[in-house]
Write a structure and sequence with these properties.
Number of domains: 2
Number of strands: 20
CATH architecture of the largest domain: 3-Layer(aba) Sandwich
Order of helices and strands: EEEHEEHHHEHEHEEHHEEEEEEEEEHHEE
Number of helices: 10
Distance between the termini: 35 Å
Mean pLDDT: 89
CATH superfamily of the largest domain: P-loop containing nucleotide triphosphate hydrolases
Length: 344
């Protein structure tokens, strides 16, 4: 399903987006993700929009799952799901039970919302949205209020259900994990879709610094591209020269930025052979649960993320210095200098 919406207020958006299966729209807070969903649902007026333009909210064939789930606190689970169904139909209660069964909440049909966990409330809200048999399901930050275990279980069940029903779903989020497991994803920045495709395409090849930051490329090194041969370029940043990959031609000495994921940097107490290898001193070490972060400040400021088992082999070397290697295919070169509008 193609979504084309032009919105003037409360934020200006010009959206051209393909929704395929479970689609995630990734963007920072304040970019207008919720505004887009409300506009598609008819709750905010768009200047123009496809599909559903001109239809009042109650006639739009969409299921909308807002943040907070918006369950009616005075109605039990079954009546919450049945609320949007035709009350003149004799089977509206049976229909509610059917959708509760699909989301694994049939045994809680008589419970009140306050008696449910956050994950259970969300499943009830999903059942209510699907009970209308929509042509499009809209989900606003569906993982924001869930712990990691509940998040993963719910997302797996939700994506399986959406695939089985054949209903396209658009989930807006700032969570890269949700985007990574989607069928299709897009990135929203400054009112426009700046990139879209499969998660593997987008995560491996961000098209802009904004996209790279959202996708977890925490290392952003400003510099200039010196030469290019096809899609491989020589890049200089400070006293460091790197080979990297580009998706567009660069002119000699054109300003650029190299973006690198912390987990894509290899370290060793011994010398690496080949390109993109150098000796570095560790500025700071931070242990985090099952992993460790190393921070380097020379010849380039870098953040490295290692599993604890790998970090254990470097325990003695960290104080003396380590050898660093970044595979050229893991160095992404993007036009422009460092994007100071993005968080570091």
């Amino acid at each position: 399903m193609r979504i084309e919406y032009h919105i003037e207020h409360p934020i200006r958006l010009d959206i051209d987006l393909e929704v395929e299966g479970f689609t995630a729209l990734l963007g920072l807070s304040g970019e207008g993700k919720t505004t887009l969903l409300k506009s598609i649902a008819g709750l905010i007026q768009a200047k123009k929009g496809t599909p559903f333009d001109g239809l009042p909210p109650e006639q739009r064939p969409v299921g909308y799952l807002p943040q907070g789930y918006a369950l009616f606190p005075h109605l039990d689970v079954r009546r919450n799901v049945a609320f949007g169904l035709d009350k003149t139909s004799s089977d509206h209660q049976a229909s509610a039970d059917f959708w509760l069964e699909r989301v694994g909440m049939r045994d809680h049909a008589s419970a009140m919302p306050h008696e449910l966990s956050g994950g259970q409330q969300q499943r009830v809200a999903v059942a209510r949205a699907l009970a209308r048999r929509p042509r499009l399901l809209l989900l606003d930050e569906p993982t924001s209020a869930l712990d990691i275990v509940t998040r993963d279980e719910l997302l797996e069940r939700l994506i399986e259900l959406i695939d089985a029903l054949g209903i396209p779903a658009l989930a807006v989020t700032h969570d890269p994990h949700l985007a990574a497991i989607s069928d299709h994803m897009a990135i929203l920045s400054r009112g426009h879709i700046v990139q879209q495709g499969t998660p593997s395409e987008v995560f491996l090849s961000p098209s802009s610094l904004t996209a790279a930051r959202l996708l977890g490329y925490r290392n952003v090194l400003p510099g200039a591209v010196k030469t290019c041969a096809g899609y491989e370029c020589v890049f200089e940043t400070g006293n460091l020269t790197l080979l990297g990959q580009c998706a567009q031609p660069f002119d000699p000495n054109q300003p650029a930025a190299a973006v690198i994921r912390p987990e894509d940097i290899e370290v060793s107490p011994d010398l690496f052979r080949g390109e993109n290898s150098w000796f570095a001193h560790v500025h700071k070490v931070r242990t985090e649960g099952t992993g460790m972060r190393l921070f380097l400040d020379h010849p380039a400021p870098l953040e490295i993320r290692l599993p604890l088992e790998s970090a254990a082999t470097l325990k003695d070397a960290v104080s003396r210095g380590i050898y660093v290697h970044v595979p050229p295919q893991r160095v992404r070169l993007l036009a422009g200098e460092h994007d100071h509008s993005m968080p570091g």
